[in-house]
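Weekly modeling sync, notes
Attendees: S.R. (lead), two postdocs, one rotation student

Agenda item 3: backlog of single-chain predictions. S.R. asked that every request posted to the team notebook include the full sequence so nobody has to chase files. The rotation student volunteered to paste the first one in as an example of the format we agreed on. Action items at the bottom.

Example entry:
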Amino acid sequence: MNGAELSLALSVFLACAVEAVEAFTIVLAVGTTRRWPPALAGTGAAALALAVLVAALGPALTALPLGVLRVVVGGLLLTFGLQWLRKAILRAAGAKDKHDEAAIFRAEEAEAAAVPAAEGFDGYAFAISFKAVLLEGLEVAFIVLTFGANQHDVGLAAAAAAVAVATVLAAGLALRAPLSRVPENGMKFAVGVMLTSFGIFWGAEGAGADWPGGDAALAVLVAVVLLAALAMVAEVRSRAAGGVDASVPLGEERRGEVA
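Predicted structure, as returned to the notebook:
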């Protein structure tokens, strides 16, 4: 496995592990509060739908010309990655509450307990589990398809995603509790950096740019994006310490002062 393949597999693994943790928390809350058979049925139905989606779209994406594919994939990853990175920066700076799986579990558990029990098949447990796995899984499918199609190796991306999901399930079933000790916020920060870096790298290549050193330039790009993100964390912290609302985009408060 070369450096590009290793970076792809690691990025997909981390991103999919984060999504799997979030889906697992919801299914666990519904299954323990309601009934497990419909919760597992909803999970299985969503997983099947996602598998069909990846199997159908994977070959179609890899059939696109490489230049077009890299521009499209690069743009999508950059948009997606910047959203992850923005939230991760705000959480790291203390301007946004960190993701707390234990709190989410308690909220989902209370909501599930408040719904009257159904006779026969529990449609609520099925629907909530299906929705949770499908919504989180769509992000997994997006990452698998974009990374895999661009490298013409959807199989490797799918395998990394499968290992991530299996790891989360194994840990969750062993503990039978929300995976609150998983460093989810740190993982999201890392994923945001990786997705943004890959988006810039592949988008520029698709537009005709040649990176000095080829694939080796990706490591430098990751370091630059990481340093920029850490600088933004420091900036947000300083703004918060100065009493400025960190949710306001940088520069907006300065224009307001001038006006």
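Discussion: group reviewed the output briefly. The CA atoms of residues 9 and 196 lie 16 Å apart.
Action items: rotation student to repeat for the remaining queue; S.R. to check formatting next week.
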